[in-house]
Amino acid sequence: MSNNTDSQLTVINWNARSLANKISEIMQFADENNADILTIQESWLTREKTLKAPNYQAYRFDNTDIYGRRGLVTLVRDTFPSKKVPLGFINNTEVELMAVEVTLANRSILIVNIYVPPGLRLPRIFWDNVFDQSLHPHVILCGDLNAHHPLWGSGDTDLRGQQIFDSMLDSPLILIENDGETRISRPGHNKSATDAAFSSASLFSNLTIQILNETAGSDHFLMKIVLQNAEKIPIIPIFKWNFKKADWQKFDHIIFQKLSSTQFDEITNVNFQQYYDLWESTILEAATEAIPQKQINSRTKSNLWWNETCEEVTNNKRQAISTWRRSKTLINYQSMKQATQHARATIFSVKRSAWRDLCQQLSTTSQPISAWNMLSIMNGNRSRTKFVKPETEPQLCSTVLSSITRPCPLLTQMPLDPQTAPHPFTLTQLEHALARRVKDTCPGEDKISYSMLKRMPLMAKSLLLKMYNFCYQSNSMPSQWLKIKIIYVKKHTAPDSNSSAPPSIRPLSLISCPVKILNSMIGQQLESHVESNFNLPTTQHGFRKRRSCLNCLSEMYLRILAGRDEHLTTMCCFLDITGAFNAVKIEELVHTMKLAGISPFTTAWVQKFFSSKTYTDGVNSSYGSQGLDQGSVLSPLLFNLYVHVLHNLNFSPGTTVLSYADDFALLVQSKDVLLNLTNMRSNLETLLQTFAKLGLQINVNKTKILSFFDGLSDHQRLDLTINLASHAEPICTVKTTKYLGIMLDDRLRGQCHTKSVIDRCNNDVRALKSMKGSGWGNHPEVQEALYKFAILPKIFYGAHLYCWGLKANFDKLQILQNTALRQILGAVKSSPIPSLHSLTSTPYLDVQLHFETTRTWCRLIIYDTNIRNSVNRFISPPHQRNLMPWNRYREILHEITTIMHDEDVHLNSEEENSYRHHPSNSLQVCPTIPTVDKKTNFNPHQLQALVAEHIELKYPPEYSGDRLFTDGSKLGSGATSSADYRESDNTANGLKVNNSCSVFNAELIAIDLALKRMYDDPHSLNDAVVLSDSRSALQSLHQLKSGDNPPYIIQSIIKSVNNLKRDRAANIQFQWIAGHSFIKGNEIADNTAKLIASQPDPPHKHGLVTYPDLVRQLKLKKNENWIQQHTLKTEAVGHWTKSIIPDPTVQPWYCNITASNPKFFSTVNRIIIGHGNTPFFQHLMAKRATPYCLNCPNEQVADVDHLLNFCTASIAARRSLYQQLGIEIGTSIQDHLRYPFKQEDLNIIFSYVESISDGGRPAI
What we know:
six-stranded mixed beta sheet; RNaseH_domain; 37 strands; Endo/exonu/phosph_ase_sf; nucleic acid binding; single chain; transferase
């Protein structure tokens, strides 16, 4: 093989005879030989089978017959542009033929993969068509023809071989003569060469062919075809910053030195671009010096587990094949067969061992190997992201880029009055904006990342902040921000797709990180204005605080169910908008922003940033607008503002519009289905008129209508279609559809979504099984974490809606959980269900779902007034109906509202929901004392002196005003109170608050009460310092960020401070003091709070319960229900485990326990459960004739209890066990086990169990 692989194209042809079990060997061979293309016949792949071929684009022809055999696969290196080409002349379904066009730098080549089954009679005209040169000027045709002719190495000639020979004589395609037989034949038989390759005359002189000493487990040799002088398209290497090895101190030093040596004048239009260029070049220069780069390798090794053993047995196999090909004796034939079988068995063993070792290292942290990534890979939900490179697909990328970029009309720049300029951004706002960027996303064209911006010295941040303020107030921006980098991601297609259409790709915009930081700060101001001024309707959800997709779904459910109670049918149209964000008209958006009263500076910025930019992918460029760039942080909020008018159109009566971003649901309710249909048609026509004005279009094929509770049959429902004047195709009514991740059915039973959830979670459970067996694999703690944090959230999403439609939904999901817990523990099928839940400390699923439902509905009712009103409407319908399952929804909601009433929960008003924190409302908070780091470092007298000194020095009464000491207290009985002490008049005040309130909230209530008492008392001093010993309470006030929506108690404190500032010009400060430091005021406040808490409850307590405090109470209630249900269930089964672990809520015993042998955990779990892989269990599974112990007389059942405590075959070992455990002979081993366990005892018991055998196999 030539070393110059860049100028040659290597094609491997091979008949696999089942590819799935040989994929490892063939991919390893492809790696070793730098194979560019593989043409494979008889893949035997089914349409559902996923083919994993790293570094290759797979083209499949899964034309399986009744035996599940045949099929073609063509693998093309993903660095080559390639596409499937249709062959229209094939009219015989028995013949498999697939053509793929591969593009090189100097030409394109058509690779034709063919398989013709034996025994099939074909006319001569078929082969004339196959060898037709008009297909393409450059063709390589290869495959298994199942034809014999001496010309390509066979020992005889058959009819098909003669036909091919005759057609080839009249065709410009030329046979590429090989050097021997292509298929293993038995000794004494004629040579078998059924595989052949042909090429165009234009390629023939540069082609060589070789039959290799490799079968990869098949009975066909690999055929290697090499095309010389094949100029490949050069691939531009991609580099990324390696922040793990960055020298941030050096990075900081370089930036400081360069910027400190430069004199910066006031920023103007003249010098702004120059200053930004200097700042950018400084950052990049420092990054180049201090941060190494690593090249992203587009090729990955196919088999990371391949080792020297695999290499050795493969070489031995190839040597045996070579020996047999030279001398076809019976001994050599048998030696070749044995070497092949041995190689395959060894490779399989190495692969399995490597996989088990890998699984044993899996961890829930990223080191050494992330179990989260492995789960997503093994369940089939995650595939390697494939990027389309513009240099390899220039035409396709150019077409996509042109389709999404449109010319933007010349817009008149908005006049800005400097006198009305907004407050400049502060360094604190910049730091908060940077802190929100937790991960480094792909940088823009300038290659500056978030990590660089965070690690800049203060001088560089200050300069950047000045440029930000200049940009915003003068509506200017550097040229770098107007250049957007585009990358293309190949969309996932089904593995059985035989389409010859070009691949579908999705463009992504990579916007400069510096401008995204500025946009995020502008976005905070924009959101505050929009929410505070109620510019968006309450039925509009998505990218809004406390208006999630669950809000939208819940409101839709409630409206449908409430309508059902009122004898109304509901018709819902789920709209799919084509390219919603990219279709936005910037001039129309600017008009909408002006009508909403948004700051002209923000409006002008949006107009300029989204109007005209240069989009480039490195090869193609386009100038114009892409509407709202999907990579911009401003786009979601701006889109909400753009389409909010759709909620306020003049629709027919009984119409509601719900939306989540660009997912719209149009609901129509009436007592007549046909009237619903008429109104829906009218509403859609009205909606489409506004869509046309906004530049939006709906995708009729993806837009669906669902009619709820209409009483129609499936046949009648087919007639419920809507024909729109502007669209040729009708909108159809369906029985089920998916909206915001929930499968909806026409009666809201939840069956279809439950099935969907179970199917998805079963994939995850199968992935868990692939990572752990009873004697190998990862730690059960890792498996438990994967289940609780990766699988359970899929069940919990929307559970407050879909689960309650039918009781059977709970039962099916519980079966899923039982299966997962058995897998986690290594338990057998007969294990009692209560034991599984007790060992893993997992609540029964109905308990968990009831808690999740209660928690979700409480959050929705507290923060969403629409849902609050809909719930009240639903639980108190005008027509009481005793209909199941809708009464299940009503019962649970009635229970939830009762809980909230009894707990006296605070329900947020729209004003509280719309509040957004502004820097002008920031409080003066000092949550520390410099001389006091930890209270434990000082004795009480030292602590008192330090705190008193700090107060006297920092807050002298003549300058700081009054001193307000506050405290919150909770007694052991749960009684809670808040109190304050005012030093100026030596008065203390307090009140009792709800017992459900946490001490944290009691402290905040005390602060609020002190401020209100100060405001209400006209004789109080104007200025004050609030002194609290709750550092967490003061930190919650200190850490408020711009745009935050804090709890109502904090909002009340801010309001009290603002009232004092406005009416008294007061200066209010907050200071933390160490608790129990014997400061007089703090002691008085503390004693007052305790005294009030110990008093009898007043008729009405102060302090409404917040959502976090309510959830704390709900968790306690959940644990009570869990223990109660566990007690009931263990009355029937699970006594053994309950005697060992009485409390199911305790931490699982295997947490923080390590073992060298993974079988240790499965064995101990089976002992605790009392069920194992015993003869008794095998008898239950019909794998053993009797359940009795073979070593004991009198037909004693060989269950776990017998094998541990009574089996006569292990008397000596049991005596030694008793001695090591220090227990009396005759004591049951399970009686000695009591939670918490000692690992030393478990190790001794495990060793004892390992010594017990049943016919040579472990007994448990």
